[in-house]
Amino acid sequence: MDAIELLKNDHDAVEELFQRFSDGGGLTGVVKRLTGNGEKPGQRRAIAAKICQELHVHAEIEEQIFYPAVRKLRDDELDEMLDEAEKEHGTIKERVSATEQALDDEDELKTRVSSLQDCVTHHVREEEGEMFPRLEELMPEAERSRLGRDLAAAKRDAKTAMTELGRSTALRGSGSGRARKTTAKAGKSTAGVKRASGARRR
Ligand SMILES: [Fe+2]
Ligand SMILES: [Fe+2]
User: How far apart are CA 27 and CA 115, in angstroms?
Assistant: First the structure.
């Protein structure tokens, strides 16, 4: 799969989770909540934890594999976009961590998820609207496919590491703190991605 397509699919998946968290957002969300058809607090917490996990994996594979490959093209425009993107990843990570810390507080969680969503939406708009089109011009299709395969493999490794971590945490822990522990620890499990990117470095 083309690297750009894979990353866009990731963006769409996270956007869908944000929509689910806010019951479709806007008026739809208000109606759903008023009619009792909104997500329950427990489900909302699980969705928020999933958003954090997905963003963690996505940011890692971009930073370890995708951005360095784009950097290698030595294009001034792309370099500027990458500098900006890396800064934004820093902000996104801070907000992911703030979200993870608010998993047990329904009201606080809504505020944190909304602030995370603002940042992610802005970042995705720049990647899809500026970086990816420029990359499509400069990187041949075959190379983008190769990069897509590397990203897919790294993503599988990172998800496996996260699942194993989640399973062992679930065995040890119980109660409402479980989701928080799982995502917080998963946030540190970058070894899988690093291994994958190192192994595939050409
Ligand atoms: Fe992205
Ligand atoms: Fe990104």
Answer: 19
Q: In the predicted model, what is the mean pLDDT of residues 174-191?
A: 46
CB 138 within 8 A of CB 185: no
* Sign of the Cα pseudo-torsion (103, 107, 112, 117, in order): positive
Does position 109 have pLDDT exceeding 70, yes or no? yes
188 or 12, which is more confident:
12
Least confident among 103-107, 148-152, 158-162: 158-162
- Return the pLDDT at 195: 52
Residue 88 CA: which ligand is closest? 2
Measured in Å, residue 173 CA sits from the centre of ligand 1 at 32
Classify residue 65 by burial, with Cβ atoms within 10 Å: 0-12, 13-18, 19+: buried
Ligand 2 centroid, distance to 31 Cα (angstroms):
33
Orientation angle between helical segments 76-101 and 178-186, nearest 10 degrees: 160
Tokens of 194: 């690093």
The two three-digit tokens of residue 14, written as one number? 């996270």
Ligand nearest to the CA of 151: 1
Percentage of the chain beyond pLDDT 90 is 68
| Ligand 1 centroid to residue 90 C-alpha, Å | 13
